[in-house]
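Fold this complex.
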Amino acid sequence: MSALVADRLSHWFGSEPALDSVDLVVDRGDHVAILGENGAGKTTLLRILATAMRPSSGKLEIMGLDALRERRRLRGRIGYLAHAPGLYPALTAAENLAFFCDLRGADRERVPEMLDLAGLSEVARKRASELSRGMQQRLAIARAVLHDPLLLILDEPDASLDAEGSELLVRVMKDRTTVLATHDQALATRLCQRTVVLRKGRVLGAGSRLRVVQ
Amino acid sequence: MTNYLRASVLALALMLAAAGMIFLFAPTDALQGDVQRIFYLHVSSAIAAYGCFAVVLLGGIVYLWKDSLVADRLARAGALVGVVLTTVTLVMGMLWAKPIWGTFWTWDARLTSTLVLWIIYAGYLLVRRLAAPGRQAARFAAVVGIFGFVDVPIVHFSVTWWRTQHPGPVVINDALPPEMLATFLFTMVCTLFLAGVLIAIRYRIETLLDARPVAAVVSAPTQTEPAR
Amino acid sequence: MSEWRTRELVPALAQFVVLALVIANFGFQIDSRNASAIAPGVLWLALVFAGLIAFGRAFAAEREQATLEAMLMTGAPASAIFAGKALAAGLLLVVCEAVLLPALGLLFGVDVSAGLVGAVLLATIGMAALGCLFAAMVAQLRARELLLPLLTLPLWIPFIVAGGQAVQSAMGGSGAFDQAVKLLLDFDILFVVLTSLAARFVLDD
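Structure:
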């Protein structure tokens, strides 16, 4: 059973096309990079894959379940890093994680674990708004894996990422099915075995270690 | 001649017949004079408007429940026709009020709740226009339509209740002699038919708008085995 | 669920409320004779406008949308998330009332009895739920400053009518206090149930 099967996903915002018949199959343990420039439809695709949004048409199956019907159930097993981190600025790093731990019904002991993993143990008591952008991104990544998800969906995880963040990324992706979006080709080839290129909502080409000639 | 054209002509003919009945058959009111004749169309359009909004309510509920595009289109059509009819009701009401009561407006239960009705469904149309076309617009509009429909009788009731604490200056007398009743019922039926025709036409327009090259709203896909 | 971000709004809202009372005094020429007749109207007017401002601001920020999505993505039910937000919204209104009622008592000589406070709090429940739902909807649309009052006020009218009557009765005016309170309770139950059911269509896709 594949981890994710997307069949002819299309989406329009009114009469604006965003995705055009995207097919994607991701097996368990795969690391797939969605490559494309801004406006290519990466975020829309990832939001649909993460069940944050329903597509205008097409089918999506995640871990054997119909992703359009079982969204809430699937969300418990998916870790999603959105384009905007979505952290609570007034809460501390630890409080942010604890809050989402409670929401997910996960054990609060995961909080110090995750802080440690992300290298944020020292700033655990600092408010999220006071953290550097790189630290915020690390915190957001830590939050995405708080509940040990089976599938990881990351929207431009390399944005504002510092050196420790890159390490964190590699660590959380290990042994975890991942789909990430980026416009950094080098990152894509470094982290993922497969690349799918998106342009104006359509899949241009896909392959392993793909090299895109501009 | 398409069916729509036939239906429209019939609706128009019926309205003309109703007008004839209003002006030629119905007797002149003893107290209010000829101005009272506005009442037939005024109340008919009010009732037809409520009927339209009931369509919006049902369409909204069915859309939220079953993701039905047809239901959403029906709701869109019903809302537009309903707002038009409510506007007619309000204007006719004001035209009637001035000669009879000496004022264009009074805050009694009926007028207040009709105004609120207008505001709510004008809001409905605005939300449809401002929301992301497609699913978001349909979802939000359905919620507004449902809350609106529930709210209007409650507003009417609240104001009526409040008026029992603070009696207002105006009391509306509804007793009707048989000729007036007959005229009213006929006018109401004609107006309801007109409303139905208008909704059907608008529904057709919405269908055509939806079928533009890139569809605006698509129903939830059903699950079958995807090809690998 | 702590929504401490809304704390930023409190001082501004408190100022707004007091300012509204000052203006009302000049606009209505309130003196000791007509205070009890005009005070209920002033109370609800000030509360409604403060409420609209508060709800409009509380949801508008982009950050707010991002955190809302993050919460939904945990798989938590939308109605639960909505309940948390509505509670926070209600508390915001209560803070406004905590400034408004004493100020009303102080500046217009109104007797702020337990009944009056109770009626206002009761109305707050329903108003918060409705305001929260439509603020969440409107935050995702354009022209939100126009839309929020347009959608929310018609639904607040029953609360203002019944609440206004309750407040007036509590201040010693004529009318049935008990009836008004019972109406408020009925409205609360109805709209809290409806908004909870509607939450998932407004917050989630």
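Chain C has one domain: 4-203.
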